[in-house]
Recover the amino acids of this structure.
């Protein structure tokens, strides 16, 4: 489904990653500084590789030889950052609906009500991000990405800032998303338990090299 | 404190010139501030220096250069007059241009700071949610920079109210056309018995400046609360 062969260099750091990702959850594990977040940024379109190709299905998203570089906003990939990155000037509800409005109605996979219920964030709707706890923020960020109905979901340690109880709530939800939508996910984590529970396969990245 | 018709005229003209100069500076200032905060381009240093130049030059110099360029004999001024019948020299429109040039750096600086304060990852998050660069700008960057934009607009307005040197050099001191508050004060100090009027207008200028600072302070506070940030995290724009 997702094929990539990407080479990226910045300063001393180089990243080479070649793989194919299918349906279900692919875990991306490796020590910090190995290039996990860089790889996600390249896939999402927030960074551009010096050399490489990226294909989703039949669609070519990056081809440095042919000078193709589809911008992030046209890739329809969702990305959940480690720290949520909610828009501080918008209410929780407007944050959730930000990407939802960008997609045609027939491509919506979830309704606002479903996401509110699943992530238990209904009562927070009218609040501002500054009034949320870390766990609440992260759930809203997850809901926002899901409501965008992406065709690939990139998750950069989305549960890292949550306590154990919330993790145990959200993990089954992510599993349900995976089982019900077959939405391909690339899940960065350093916790063995999370990976074992959620992932269908594991890719290891070390010192900028991806080992499938 | 009753004002004579002549003094009212100066006050109204000042307000109109300052408002028009601010409206002129807003879109240009926001666009330039964004470019300076978010983009690298060749000659950026020169653009920066050129924008800041009116701050460090004697105001008469930009005024004189405006007269050379935009005067009816000047290359741009002559063309404007021939093509569109627009005359800037010695009109209130020219006073707007002079004020805008002098106040522009005060608009750009706080807006630029405000853009720089915005976490780039918020803009990236918006783009990964399908927002085009224009939409990111109007739905994320600009609203988050709003305190800076308002502070810049107020500084620009206040600076325009006080513009003297460039206005004098470019459009002169014509009652009812280009005689703004500072020029009226200057004129009153040069006529016998004008001290009372000069003092009245001086006090008025002080009141206006204090009011502008208070409004700016209030707006910044409100914006900070709205964004849920604590005091001091939003640049207070040199106030």
């Amino acid at each position: 489904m997702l094929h990539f062969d990407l080479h990226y260099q910045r300063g001393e750091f180089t990243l080479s990653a070649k793989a194919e990702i299918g349906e279900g959850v692919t875990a991306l594990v490796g020590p910090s500084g190995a290039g996990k977040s860089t790889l996600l940024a390249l896939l999402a379109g927030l960074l551009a590789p010096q050399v490489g190709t990226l294909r989703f299905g039949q669609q070519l998203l990056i081809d440095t030889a042919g000078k193709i570089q589809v911008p992030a906003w046209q890739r329809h990939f969702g990305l959940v950052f480690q720290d949520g990155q909610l828009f501080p000037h918008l209410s929780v509800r407007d944050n959730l609906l930000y990407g939802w409005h960008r997609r045609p109605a027939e491509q919506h996979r979830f309704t606002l009500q479903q996401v509110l219920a699943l992530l238990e964030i209904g009562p927070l709707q009218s609040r501002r991000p500054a009034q949320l706890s870390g766990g609440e923020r992260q759930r809203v960020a997850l809901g926002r990405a899901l409501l965008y109905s992406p065709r690939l979901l990139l998750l950069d340690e989305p549960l890292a800032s949550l306590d154990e109880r919330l993790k145990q709530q959200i993990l089954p939800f992510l599993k349900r998303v995976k089982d019900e939508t077959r939405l391909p996910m690339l899940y960065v984590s350093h916790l063995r338990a999370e990976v074992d529970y959620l992932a269908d396969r594991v890719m290891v990245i070390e010192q900028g090299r991806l080992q499938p | 404190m009753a004002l004579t018709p002549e003094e009212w005229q100066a006050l109204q003209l000042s307000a109109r010139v300052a408002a028009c100069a601010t409206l002129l500076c807003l879109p240009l200032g926001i666009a330039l501030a964004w470019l300076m905060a978010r983009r690298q381009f060749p000659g950026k240093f020169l653009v920066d220096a050129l924008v800041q130049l009116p701050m460090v030059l004697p105001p008469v110099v930009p005024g004189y250069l405006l007269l050379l360029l935009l005067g009816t004999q000047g290359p741009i001024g002559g063309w404007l007059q021939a093509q569109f019948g627009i005359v800037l020299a010695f009109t209130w429109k020219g006073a707007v241009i002079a004020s805008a040039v002098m106040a522009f750096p005060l608009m750009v600086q706080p807006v630029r700071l405000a853009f720089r304060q915005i976490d780039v990852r918020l803009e990236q998050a918006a783009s990964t949610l399908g927002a085009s660069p224009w939409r990111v700008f109007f739905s994320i960057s600009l609203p988050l920079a709003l305190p800076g934009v308002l502070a810049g607009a107020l500084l620009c307005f206040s600076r325009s109210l006080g513009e003297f040197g460039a206005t004098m050099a470019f459009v002169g001191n014509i009652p009812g056309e280009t005689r703004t508050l500072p020029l009226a004060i200057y004129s009153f100090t040069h006529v016998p018995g004008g001290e009372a009027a000069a003092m009245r207008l001086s006090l008025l200028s002080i009141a206006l400046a204090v009011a502008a600072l208070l409004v700016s302070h209030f707006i910044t506070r409100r914006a900070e609360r709205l964004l849920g940030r604590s005091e001091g995290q939003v640049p207070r724009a040199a106030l």
